[in-house]
Design goal:
CATH class: Mainly Alpha
CATH architecture: Orthogonal Bundle
Oligomer: single chain
Largest sheet: 2 strands, antiparallel
CATH superfamily: Cytochrome c-like domain
Strand content: under 5%
Number of helices: 6
Structural class: mainly alpha
Number of strands: 2
C-alpha cells in the first residue's frame, strides 16, 4: 500500500516528467554523424543490397561465393516475389500461417528456401541472410511498420 507521503512524491515526479522539467532528452547518438560517415554507411548498406539482389534473383556465383544453396529446383526468390514484392518485411514478426508459428522475417526466408525452393537453410546471422534482408528491406522502403498484420 502506498503511503500518503509516497503518493505525493509520485504525483510530483509524474508532474515534472509530464512537464519535462528536470529531464534531459536522451539521444541514441550524442553527436550527429558527419557527411562522410553517412556516405560510408550508405555505401556498406548498398553493397549488401547489391549482394542480396543477386541472391534473390538466383545468381549462382554469389551463392557459391557465400557457400549457400538457396534452391535445388532452379527457382529463385524473385520468381514468386518479383522485386521483393509480397514479402511484407514490415509486418514481421508475426504468426506465420505456412509455418504454424510465430516467426521473424529470417524464419520466413529460411522457410521459403527450404520448402518451395528445396534449398539448404542458411545461417540466420550469416552474410547471406543479412544481404537478403538488406535487399528485401530496401525494396520495401517507405512501407509503414505494422508488425503482426496479415
Amino acid at each position: 500500500m502506498v503511503s500518503k507521503k509516497n503518493y505525493t512524491r509520485l504525483a510530483i515526479v509524474l508532474a515534472l516528467v509530464s512537464l519535462g522539467l528536470g529531464m534531459q532528452q536522451v539521444y541514441a547518438h550524442k553527436e550527429p554523424h558527419a557527411l562522410d560517415q553517412l556516405a560510408a554507411f550508405e555505401q556498406v548498406f548498398m553493397e549488401q543490397v547489391r549482394v542480396g539482389d543477386l541472391l534473390f534473383h538466383g545468381d549462382g556465383d554469389t551463392q557459391k561465393n557465400l557457400n549457400v544453396n538457396l534452391s535445388r529446383t532452379g527457382m529463385a526468390c524473385a520468381m514468386c516475389h518479383p522485386f521483393a514484392s509480397d514479402t511484407h518485411p514490415h509486418e514481421f514478426p508475426k504468426f506465420q500461417e505456412q509455418m504454424s508459428q510465430f516467426a521473424t522475417l529470417r524464419d520466413m526466408i529460411n522457410w521459403c528456401i527450404e520448402k518451395p525452393n528445396e534449398g539448404e537453410r542458411i545461417d540466420p546471422d550469416g552474410p547471406a541472410m543479412k544481404a537478403l534482408e538488406a535487399y528485401i528491406y530496401w525494396s520495401n522502403r517507405n512501407s509503414k511498420l505494422d508488425p503482426g498484420r496479415h
